[in-house]
Amino acid sequence: MSVLSWVKVTVCLWLLRMMVKVAKWLVLGAVAVAAWPVTLVAVAGFAAACLRGWPVTRLRRDAVACLLPVTAVWLLLEALRQRSWQAVALAPVRDWAQGWHHLTGSGEARTFLLVAPVAIPAGLGLAALAWAWRTYALTTGIGGWTASAPITFDARQWKRQVRTAKGRIAAPGSVPLLARGGRIPAGGTIRAIGHRWHPVFSIPHTECARHMVVVGATGSGKTNLMMRLWAGWFTAALDAARAGRGRRPLLVVLDCKGGPDARVKADRTRRLLYGAGARRVAIWPDEARLSLWDLPPGDLAVLLYQMIDSGTGAAAYYADILQAVLTLAVTAPGGPPLNAAAFLDRLDARWLAHAWGDGRHPEQLARARSAARHLPDIQLRFATLLGRLGPALDGPGNLADADAWYFILEGTREPSVAEAQAMALTALAAHAVTSLASEPRAMLLAADDYSAVARRVPISNLYERGRSLGIGVQVSAQSWEGLGASEDERYRIAATADGGVWIMSTPHPEPLAALAGTRRVLETAHRLVGAAWGDEGTTRERRAWNADPELIRRLDVGQACYIHRGAATFVQVARPRPSPLSLLPAQAPVVLPAPRREAEPAAGPVLASLDDVLGPGAAP
Amino acid sequence: MTASPFDALGLPARPDLSDEQVRAAWRAIAAATHPDRPGGGDVARYTDATAAYAILRTPWGRSEAFADLAAAVDDTSPLPAVPAAGPPPAAPVRPGNMLAAGRRLLGASRQLPARIQHGRPLRLAIRALAACLLSLFVLHLIPGQPAAPALVTGLIVWFLRTGRSDLAPPG
Fold first, then answer.
1. In this complex, which of B4, B169, B171 lies closest to A173 when CB atoms are compared?
2. Which of A63, A239, A388, A593 could serve as a FRET partner for A349 with CA atoms 20 to 30 Å apart?
3. Do A529 and A428 fall into the same domain?
4. A280/B149 touch (CB, cutoff 8 Å), yes or no
């Protein structure tokens, strides 16, 4: 074959290929023009999906949502009028054909409206197909004009999806604290990978009653997310209790960082919980107290022992003495101490000898005598510890007194005190759940920034204790490293979070993102002819992250990735707000029973003269 | 003494009042009724207001007082201690259930004005206007055709589905 004939054949083949392509587009164009009402709706649907970053599911659902009321009513009325299914089936064709005889603006509008009950669902269905193909072609690399088309497409769609999700959560009624079926709405769905897509992402409230991990850097919107989950869980549990399907809820929040921010957060949480139906929300230690001494003597002795940093090595000898003395002091006949002062009084050789010296406890008496020379030291250590802890754990007060407790631990300012307080509070929470004497409650124990106090009480302990007691535990940390001291502990916490893992913006999300697993995706390589794409290439399968760490690293404030059961959903979290209706003034006239407690005389405004009320420095 | 400490200070019975609101209410009453005022003031009212202020001056105190009020209004506090149970059995359709559903519907419709007021009323009005105008357009252009009521139904459904998001969440 000569060069000329080879060129001729090549050109002919190229022309033939082009003709087939052009013919294909011409036929498609002719069909589109002929079925213009369907084309119109399909184009509008496709454009909306593209500009708003909708997934294909959304268009499909719209088609079905339109099909049900509009087409069904139209079919019914048409059937009543025509009285023949054949005529009903041909009615849109007839209307469409008549439309070609009135090629005016109003004539076309009339034709469109006549065939709309069929054209709209059909058009939306077609748009869904076209959008599915477009997405497929671009994500697999077989579509687009340039090599970077898949990357550009993904980035553009992400922006649009975020914008749409933000618009969705701006509507007041879109994201209530609790949705139907006891689901807790978290915010607008940005992108769902593996999970079913819904415009508003929600989780069943039962997930909160399990274990959940929230990881996000400071300022990533972690608090808003956690508050929303608390309020949602509380509302759902309260509803269930009122319907006789569960226990009354008790929310316990440990804010382990402390500081002025914690007060603001506590106040916001309180307002939110009032809106959710809570009656009493206590903020510790500012407004309410608890009594450490309500614990059973055995637990109290163990707790007091753990609260003191006893060291290791040679110090173990003194640790044993400490434990023995504490057991003697707390379990003495006559019951455990009622407060810190009574406890410190017991750390005295004479007191112990008197308490155990009734002749029935010779062994305990002997132990008390042999430990006598250590007692002043032990008393000094506990006096110091209890003094630093302050009066907030010295009663009176009980966890059962309120619907929710917000504990502020100064973990940043005084880590050792906060650690001791955290130990005491978790022991009290465990006691509240297991105590047979008090009403059983459904408890959610949320530890915000627990890593601030986790040096002596690792999160994993809290986690495992919660699991064994049937308490839902929610733990938050600022980073993967903050979840635990060792890699082993971190994995143990994250991998057992059966309620799901929320990741917000964080610099090292890979270990958590790996929990969502990977999925199979196609990747197409094109052969280059010069600087342009040729017609040939290969497609291969590879694995891609379900929760892309790069995407997580770039998450904006208020955006989160929820990982659950090997799938991931990106969410724009909605700021929790109580329903304004739930905080409206009480309407019914009520008669207040006699006050429960006397007003504190020192706190009340006891005034000497009118100047005290009106003066510039008016009290209190 | 007045029935409720909130009433004594002329405040709405709600737990989320701020310290400033309570203090301002007490100051206003105290200034008007203090025994040092010419004429001796109103000792009884002053005493009531002072006692109420002592109760309501802290958030925890307001929480307690609100809880007492709520407990007096309904029977939901303290809630009965019930053992945890599995999912509730499916409720059979009975006249009682239908009555309860009717009551719920009535309650929801009573809340509607407040939900509109606290939601996005302007957007809701624009949606309603758009649905009305489109319906009129359809009825004007294809009167008597089966497609007209079908499209109007579609517009009503669209309004109901999308308009919900413009309402404040139910209380």
1. B169
2. A388
3. yes
4. no
Domain boundary among A360, A392, A424: A392
Are B154 and A70 an interchain contact pair (Cβ–Cβ within 8 Å)? yes
CA distance A467 to chain B (A): 16
The whole-number pLDDT of residue A94 equals: 79
Q: Is A2 helix (H, G, I), strand (E, B) or coil?
A: coil
Alpha-helical (H) ranges within A220-360 are 222-242, 260-275, 297-307, 315-330, 340-346, 349-356
Instruction: Tell me, yes or no, whether A378 and A431 share the same domain.
Output: no
Burial label for A241, CB within 10 Å (0-12, 13-18, 19+), is buried
Nearest to B79 among A106, A242, A579 (CB): A242
Query: Counting beta carbons within 10 angstroms of the beta carbon of residue A74, is it exposed (0 to 12), middle (13 to 18) or buried (19 or more)?
Result: buried
Task: Kindly report the nearest CA distance between residue B157 and chain A, in angstroms.
Answer: 8
Domain annotation covers residue A5 = yes
Do residues A341 and A233 share a domain?
A: no
CB A498 within 8 A of CB A565: no
| Contact between chains at B84 and A246 (C-beta distance less than 8 A) | yes
- Give residue A264's domain range: 180-290+397-573
Residue with tokens 């204790």: A465
The CATH code that applies to domain B5-73 is 1.10.287.110
Do residues A309 and A207 share a domain? no
Q: Where do the structural domains in chain B lie, given as residue ranges? A: 5-73, 114-171
CA angle A475-A479-A481, nearest 5°?
Answer: 95
- Statement to judge: residues A200 and A244 lie in one domain: yes
Residue of A74, A110, A287 with shortest CB distance to B146: A74
In chain A, the number of structural domains is 3
Q: What is the CATH number of the domain that holds A425?
A: 3.40.50.300
Residue at A591 is within a domain: no
Give a yes or no: residue A371 inside a domain. Answer: yes
> First vs last Cα of chain A: how many Å apart?
108
**Over the stretch A102-123, which tens digit does the pLDDT of each residue have?**
666 678 888 899 999 999 999 9
pLDDT at A456 over 90: no
A304 in a structural domain: yes
Is residue A314 scored above 70 in pLDDT? Answer: no
Q: Are residues A344 and A492 in the same domain?
A: no
Three-state DSSP at A277 gives coil
Distance of CA B112 to the CA centre of its chain: 10
CB A605 to CB B58 under 8 A?
Answer: no
* Widest distance between CA atoms in chain B: 82
Measured between CA atoms, the residue of chain A closest to residue B37 is A610
DSSP symbols for A463-532: HHHHHHHT-EEEEEESSSGGG-SSHHHHHHHHHT-TT-EEE-S-S--HHHHGGG-EEEEEEEEEEEETTE
Count Cα atoms within 13 angstroms, Cβ side, for A198.
13
Verify that A277 and A379 share a domain, yes or no.
no
User: Can you tell me the mean pLDDT for A432-454?
Assistant: 84
Given A558, A573, A588, the domain boundary residue is: A573
Contacts of the segment A4-8: beta carbons below 8 A, 24+ positions apart: none
Give the model confidence (pLDDT) of A376-431 as tens digits.
999 999 999 999 888 889 878 888 889 999 999 988 888 888 988 998 998 898 88
B85 and A246 in contact by Cβ < 8 A? yes
Q: Residue A138's closest CA among A156, A124, A126, A125?
A: A156
Separation in Å, CA of A50 to nearest CA in chain B:
20
Q: Omega before A620 cis (within 30°)?
A: yes
Q: How far is A118 from chain B (nearest CA, A)?
A: 9
Contact list, B149 vs chain A (CB under 8 Å): 73, 77
Comparing CB atoms, the residue among A73, A586, A590 nearest residue B153 is A73
- Which of B66, B120, B169 comes nearest A176 by C-beta? B169
Q: Considering the entire predicted model, what is its pTM?
A: 0.81
CB contact under 8 A, B59 and A70: no
A426 & A517 share domain: yes
